[in-house]
Design goal:
Helices cover 50% and strands 0% of the residues. The protein is mainly α.
Protein backbone atom coordinates (compact mmCIF):
# COMPACT_ATOMS: atom_id res chain seq x y z
CA UNK A 1 0.00 0.00 0.00
CA UNK A 2 1.27 3.49 -0.82
CA UNK A 3 2.10 5.84 2.03
CA UNK A 4 -0.61 8.33 2.93
CA UNK A 5 0.19 11.76 1.52
CA UNK A 6 -1.84 14.83 2.51
CA UNK A 7 -2.02 18.58 1.96
CA UNK A 8 0.76 20.35 0.12
CA UNK A 9 2.67 17.12 -0.45
CA UNK A 10 -0.40 15.64 -2.18
CA UNK A 11 -0.69 18.86 -4.23
CA UNK A 12 2.94 18.47 -5.32
CA UNK A 13 2.35 14.84 -6.33
CA UNK A 14 -0.76 15.89 -8.27
CA UNK A 15 1.03 18.74 -10.06
CA UNK A 16 4.02 16.58 -10.98
CA UNK A 17 1.81 13.76 -12.24
CA UNK A 18 -0.50 16.20 -14.07
CA UNK A 19 2.44 17.81 -15.89
CA UNK A 20 3.89 14.46 -16.95
CA UNK A 21 0.49 13.05 -17.93
CA UNK A 22 -0.19 16.06 -20.16
CA UNK A 23 3.15 15.47 -21.92
CA UNK A 24 2.56 11.73 -22.31
CA UNK A 25 -1.09 12.05 -23.41
CA UNK A 26 -1.41 15.14 -25.63
CA UNK A 27 -4.95 16.40 -26.10
CA UNK A 28 -6.23 14.60 -22.98
CA UNK A 29 -7.15 16.68 -19.93
CA UNK A 30 -5.69 14.74 -16.99
CA UNK A 31 -8.29 16.14 -14.59
CA UNK A 32 -11.02 14.52 -16.73
CA UNK A 33 -9.19 11.23 -17.36
CA UNK A 34 -10.33 8.38 -15.10
CA UNK A 35 -7.03 6.52 -15.54
CA UNK A 36 -5.07 9.58 -14.34
CA UNK A 37 -7.37 10.09 -11.36
CA UNK A 38 -7.01 6.44 -10.31
CA UNK A 39 -3.21 6.69 -10.67
CA UNK A 40 -3.05 9.86 -8.57
CA UNK A 41 -5.33 8.46 -5.89
CA UNK A 42 -3.18 5.35 -5.63
CA UNK A 43 0.00 7.45 -5.44
CA UNK A 44 -1.22 9.35 -2.38
CA UNK A 45 -2.74 6.34 -0.61
CA UNK A 46 -6.40 6.91 -1.45
CA UNK A 47 -8.79 4.26 -2.70
CA UNK A 48 -8.38 4.46 -6.50
CA UNK A 49 -12.12 4.28 -7.18
CA UNK A 50 -13.60 6.44 -4.42
CA UNK A 51 -10.74 8.80 -3.58
CA UNK A 52 -11.22 8.14 0.14
CA UNK A 53 -8.30 7.64 2.50
CA UNK A 54 -8.40 4.39 4.47
CA UNK A 55 -9.33 4.55 8.12
CA UNK A 56 -6.22 4.47 10.27
Amino acid sequence: MAPLIFGREADKVYNDMHRQWALDHPGVDPAEDAEFLRAFRSAVGQDPETGLYPEV
